[in-house]
Amino acid sequence: MARVLTVLFCVTSRDWGGTEKWALEAARSLSGRGHGAMALWSHERVLRQVEARGLPARRVWLPGDVNPISFASLAGALRAERPDVLVLTKQREHWVGGLTARLAGRPLGAPWSRWASSRARPWSWRSGDSRG
């Protein structure tokens, strides 16, 4: 029998869009296959979409890139849920989630992003340099 995973999807955008839809559809698909899937949300607009899909949800607060409140909020979710995988979908989540997951010893999944594609110039997206 295949191993059952617990997967947390960070969906902390203010607005509903393609990335958020992808994350929740992936969570729903995994849940339908018997895995545990949960959405971590920050804004009510996304929570409505999570609830419409019948997924479990937990609020996390990520007010900025590197913010102690962000680390504490996400660390609390990781301690409580003990996921096998944490899937991050936004730049802000990569900073906070990557460090928090590493410190908590939890595996991390990060879909392709501009950040990952600009390893030669990793700070270019931060400076607004579109050549990165």
Can you walk through the features of this model?
Strands 3-2-1-4-5 form a five-stranded parallel beta sheet, with helices on both faces. Strand 1, helix 1 (18-32) and strand 2 (36-41) form a beta-alpha-beta unit. It is built from six helices and five strands; from the N terminus they run E-H-E-H-E-H-E-H-E-H-H. Helices cover 45% and strands 15% of the residues. It has one domain (6-127): 3-Layer(aba) Sandwich (Rossmann fold). The longest helix is centred in the first third of the chain and has 15 residues, at 18-32.
Q: How would you summarize this macromolecular structure in one to three sentences?
A:
This protein has 132 residues and is α/β, with parallel strands linked by helices. The chain has helices at 18-32, 44-52, 68-81, 91-104, 114-117, 124-127; strands at 6-11, 36-41, 57-59, 85-87, 108-109. The chain has a 5-stranded parallel sheet with strand order 3-2-1-4-5, with helices on both faces.
